Amino acid sequence: MGDPRAAGRGGGGAGGVPPCRAPPPRRLIDGRALAAFSIEVGQGAAGEEETPYTSARNAFPGIVTAVKLGDVAAQVEIQAGPHRLVSLLTREAVEELGLEVGMQATARVKSTSVHIDRT
Length: 119
Hints:
By secondary structure, the protein is an alpha+beta fold. It is built from 2 helices and 7 strands, in the order βββαβββαβ.
């Protein structure tokens, strides 16, 4: 058995993962079974298209004008009206989103700090 993790009290573990017996009042879940279950649930949710819910209020819909892929990181540029936005993100995220030059995308900005310069 792999590295078991505590499952909490009562009711039988996490969803479709059978708990292992442990001294009361605890039940343990096999780490490998939990990992397999997590992958299965994640793949099932990947096909569902839903409206994204976000607290980011600054949305800039535009056109992807450049995608530069590195080994791990990537840089994506979006032209949103007169604004050019550049985002650094993981290569994996770019590939999952299927971002390519010419497609529509929305850059969302959420920041705890905004700097203003006098012009």
